[in-house]
Design goal:
0% strand; 88 residues
Length: 88
């Protein structure tokens, strides 16, 4: 039996939720700037700053808390949806 070097990932499937969360997170800026005419620049800048914070948290939690990355991505989508519903 060969020993793996320390720090090596034994099963990448553990981080499946992190990859799903980051994929959802990558879609959000397209929604934010795609619906710009609905809510204007001020809301778009606010949403983008909020997305940047959630993206930073997602990258911080990628290895330690994979399910939290999905929650952060869903929160970013829900914030966008809330702004669109309020503005229209």
């Amino acid at each position: 039996m060969q020993e793996q070097p320390p720090g090596r990932i034994k099963d990448i499937r553990v981080y499946r939720d992190s990859f799903i969360g980051m994929a959802i997170m990558a879609c959000t800026p397209f929604l934010i700037f795609g619906a710009l005419r609905v809510y204007g620049w001020f809301a778009a800048i606010g949403l983008f700053v909020m997305w940047l914070v959630l993206l930073g948290l997602g990258t911080r939690w990628f290895m330690t808390h994979p399910r939290w990355v999905v929650a952060a991505a869903i929160l970013s989508m829900l914030c966008w949806l809330g702004v669109v519903l309020i503005a229209s």
